[in-house]
Amino acid sequence: MDVISTHGGKYSLITVARLYLDHLLSLQQFDEAARLCQRVFGTDKQLWEEEVYKFVKVKQLRSVSSYIPITDACKLNPHVYEMVLYEYLQLDPNGFLQLVKEWPPRLYNTKAVINAVNDHFNKKDANILLEALAILYTHEKEFDRALTMYLKLQHKDVFELITTHNLYGMVKDCIVQLIELDSERAIAMLLKDNIPAEDVVRELEQCEQYLYRYLDAYDKVKSNEKFHWRLVNLYARYEPEKLLSFLKRSNSYPIQEAYDICQGLQFYPEMVYLLDKMGSTREALTIIMHNLQNVQMAIDFCKEHDDMDLWNDLINESVDKPHVMTKLLNSIAGFINPELLVDKIKPGQDIEGLKESVIKMLCGYSLQVSIQESCNQILGADYFDMHERLVRVQQGALNMTTDHVCGVCRRDLIVKESMKTDIVMFNCRHYFHEPCLLDKYNLDICIVCNSKKLGNSGTF
């Protein structure tokens, strides 16, 4: 072939190539024959369309499929590509699917290929053919059918189909199937604004675990308090460790109903928080002491509320518990009078570390008293200093010039002899004609300063 193309001969290169092609096909050297076509025919559309039928006769279009031109520069008759696809469909379904994925749909009549697939559909290759149909229906823009095929296959390409072609309006009735296929991708897709949350919640009513996953993710990105009551139930059932933090950051749930749920499940920390929120602090303290048996938490709770009734309840609960009394003695300094606790200690009661605790408590109490006395001394000194400064200011002279005007009539204060009048001066250095004030106002307070306090500066 190379000699003929270089030096010429009695027969043309194409003639020899055709004869050699026939020879290779007769020897069943199909791959070599296909490579020959690519090398000799190149982008000659007519030659390809004439010679490709030789492969049809021996049912070896599959051999030439990798070499057949598919570019716009040498696009063959659609029937040629369809013949290749039909052969693959009949003899190699996997190869058929691969070609459907690789070949652009402009090469062939997709509807004709879809009909052929439906005609040759069989259970053995059902999954392969359904995937091919999904791709072909996508080419035809029959997205509802493509969506159905992918869902039937449980194929994750369904998510790409939905996002690429903006099919969010079609997923309403298949939300559960999408979550079952890939919950993470499905929920991420459902969180987009294209799909109303109300529709998603409605579809997931019968699948509470999926509903929980969706609303948990939804709350992180949208924080719509509309679904918070549902989340109380769902957190309590599926992820209790998140419930307390959720209760603290949300105000959009009925407190009593939330408390009933926590009480039924014996979620004591959550019960304490909700009782505190409802104002039942003494009941909350009882749960801390009896159910949680957390002394430090009880002490912190009393410190936070600084309620004498709570301290009394805690002290009364602790009288017959030496280890609790020790913690109380070490913690109450600065919050209640130590005598209240010491008086509760029974004579002869054995309390470990009592002496050290009492000394520490009294030292703390003494320190607090000392600090308060020092603060009082500082405040007293500041008071007298400020008072002295005020007196000095009030004893100072008030300057008046010919430029000053009356704060009411806005006329000059100093006038000619024939128009003289008494002048009223305030320590704030506002001046008035006495008649101007007496007509409408009294002399107890400067009307300019008073109007500024009321937010009506300039209005008298």
UniProtKB/TrEMBL annotation:
Ranges in a coiled coil: none
Signal peptide start-end: none
A single GO cellular-component term on record: HOPS complex
Keywords: Metal-binding, Protein transport, Transport, Zinc, Zinc-finger
Keyword check for Transmembrane helix: no
The RING-type domain, residue ranges: 406-450
GO terms of biological process kind: cellular response to starvation; endosomal vesicle fusion; macroautophagy; protein targeting to vacuole
Segments annotated as CHCR repeats: 174-327
GO molecular function, one term: zinc ion binding
InterPro entries: ARM-type_fold, Clathrin_H-chain/VPS_repeat, TPR-like_helical_dom_sf, Vps41/Vps8, Znf_RING
Entry annotated with the keyword Kinase: no
Highest taxon of source: Eukaryota
Protein name: RING-type domain-containing protein
Organism, as annotated: Anopheles maculatus
Lineage: Eukaryota, Metazoa, Ecdysozoa, Arthropoda, Hexapoda
